[in-house]
Structures are given as structure tokens and as C-alpha cells.
Hints:
The chain has 13 helices and 14 strands. By secondary structure, it is an alpha/beta fold.
Amino acid sequence: xxxYIIIGIMCLFSFSAxxxxxALLCQAFEIIKEKYIDEVNLSDIVVGGLKALSKEDKNxxxxxxxxxxxxxxxxxxQKIFTHPWQGNDASKWADFVINVIEGGKQISPDLRxxxxxxxxxxxxxxxxxxxxxxxxxxxxxxxxxxxxxxAYHASLHEDNILYLRLGTINEQTIKDFNQTMEKYxxxxxxxxxxxxxxxxxxxxALQIADMFLNDGVMIYTTGRNKGKRNIYxxxxxxxxxxxxxxILVDGxxxxxxxxxxxxxxxxxxAILVGSQTYGKESVQNIYKLDNGARLALTTERFYxxxxxxxxxxSGLRPDICTAKSETIENFYETRSPSDNRFxxxxxxxxxxxxxxxxxxxxxxxxxxxxxx
Length: 372
């Protein structure tokens, strides 16, 4: 991070009145150039970000050509700006953005009123247009996004079936999860409800999955260096080895929540019930910027031990697709949990899924008893 701080300080020596904005843009551009999962042409971010100015003033339009950006106001051409000749130089592109913003402010009263926010609006919209999973979080949004409320519920149902509801995955989640595992020692089955869970921290998702495994590769990730794999393995000490697990999923189940479902399903440790999941395979790292904002940037993609890509499969297809009113009988008839049968994404949370999960667990236990 020292490198980025130095870059920001160097940018402050600009004689521009928008020196602080330039420092912010320089730092963000340098991090994106170095850390993003693929090589980046900064012009791609700039084009998307400058178009956001029209959201602040509907009379403004920024037209981007191959080497220029043209400002139109109320349909009339006002100013033309030439792209930097220095290729991917962060400082030059920061100057370019500042010049376009300053040019827009000279024309538009609405942009002048938004003076101190325009660079952040640019970054927010530009990064979102460039990569929907990467985000710029201004300081005012950090409390909402990074300090999430507790979203965890555990209750013991009849027949010693434990119901666990995970609304997010963070450090508090893993603490609550560990306490629950210590509290209940003699379980007949577990229902893990990941419906509506948009994910969280990958390391905590892997810790949860690891609790129900004894060995083997869970996932691997790749970054910009495609030839290098970071492999994550399960450790010895499986909990409730004889207890069936049913995981409830829906169209909002995404990212690290999908990792838990994918790993336990692929290892034949869990059965999935619900609807098709979201299908997000990318990993974002969080970088703190000098202005106090955060940059969540895609730096890795994850794959299952069998090379399953959630993007290529458009998410996880549940064994029992309740979105199509499939039943337990359908599951035992087809026995094809990894096929390509269509299952629509739904976003509701019917209690029927929980009832099916309970029935499925009891049926699994019954089958084990009959087999003895």
C-alpha cells in the first residue's frame, strides 16, 4: 500500500485546483492496473465514468470516440478533449478526467453544484460499468456495506434436526457458527439455509465447508497469473459425519455462499433444495484509499475441485428444484443432481423448502437404518 500512498502524494504537487481529485484518481488507477485479475486499459474505465456526468445533468452528453471525448450541452458541441498519448499512464489519464470534468463544470450549473463529488461519481460509475462485481465505496457508504448487521439464526427442530440460517458470511458468522456447533453435539441432520445470502468473505465460507469435510481439495483460485493456482484443502476433523445435510438455495445465493453449497454438494456431503443460484465466481479484495473510501476489486476467480465454474454453469442447479415444484420422489427417480435440467431462479423463501429438507433428512436416515 505504500506504493499507492506515494503515488497519491506525488499527484498532490499538481498545480491543478482539483489536486485532491487527481490524487484519488491516480491511486485508484494504479491499484486497478496492478491488481485487477486481467490486464486493464484505463480508457475503458474512463469512458464509462465520464458518461455518468449526464446523470448529474441531463443536458450534458459525453461522446467518446477512439481518441477523443466530446462534451455536448443541450445537443450542441462545446468542447473536445484528446486522450493521453502515454498509453496507460495513470497520472495522464487522471489529468484527462479532471480536464473533462472541469470543462463540464464551466458549461453546466448542475455540475458546478456537484463539484466536490464528481470525481467520486466518476469512479463509482466507471468501475461499475467496467466490472459489475467491482465497486467504489465512498466514505459515507462504508458503514452500510462493510459493517453488516448480524444475520444468523439457529434453532433445533424436532427429530434433532438443526436449522441454520446464514444471511451473510463474515467474522461474526463464523463465531456464531462455532458456538452453535459446540452447543449441539447429537444431531440427526442439518438444514443450512443460504437463501438470500449474497456472500461475504471467502475464507470464512471455506471454514464453514471445512467443518463438514475430512480431506480433499475444496476449491482453487486463479488470478492475473493464470498459470498459478491457490489451492484450498479441507482439514481432518469432520463434524456430524453421519448426519445428512440439506442446503437451501435461491436466486440470491451468490459468491462465497455458493462456495459452501458447491463444495459440500460436489463432495456428496449435502443435497441442494430450492432454485438456481446466482452464479458469481469472482473474488474481490478490498483496498483502502487515502480519502477513506474503499475499492473492492476483482482479483481472483474460483473453481471447484472438479473445475466447475459458476459462471459457465450459470450458478448451481439444485437436486430438488422447488421452483418447478419438484419433489423428493423426483429426486430419487432421476438421481442426476449435476445435469443441465432447467431450474428457474426464484427469490422468495417458501416454508415448503424447509419441510422438504426435513423430509429428505428423515428419508436419508431411514435408508441408512434399513441398510444395516
